[in-house]
Amino acid sequence: QEPLTASMLASAPLQEQKQMLGERLYPLIHAMHPALAGKITGMLLEIDNSELLHMLESPESLHTKVEEAVAVLQAHQAKDISPK
Amino acid sequence: RKSSLNPEAKEFVPGVKY
Prior knowledge:
The complex is a heterodimer of chains A (84) and B (18). By secondary structure, chain A is mostly helical. Chain A has helices spanning 6-10, 14-32, 37-44, 49-57, 59-81.
């Protein structure tokens, strides 16, 4: 797969753009967190596209954001489990 | 630092229309 560029993305309809970004992000996130990959990718897709493109180019920034998403998910799930 | 990520976000499934 050739790297996704801003111009490639810009030429796609908005809905397709998120799909394209998700298809590229998912395998990278899956390598880090297989069990949560779908959820984390969904959370990241809410970030604006320019930042997502940057993350595709910078493994470090992607890694930071994925860890943040895992922390948010764990805190969220902890809230669900905690006795009310 | 409060994260802006949404834990309720829709799950992404590769190959499925997002």
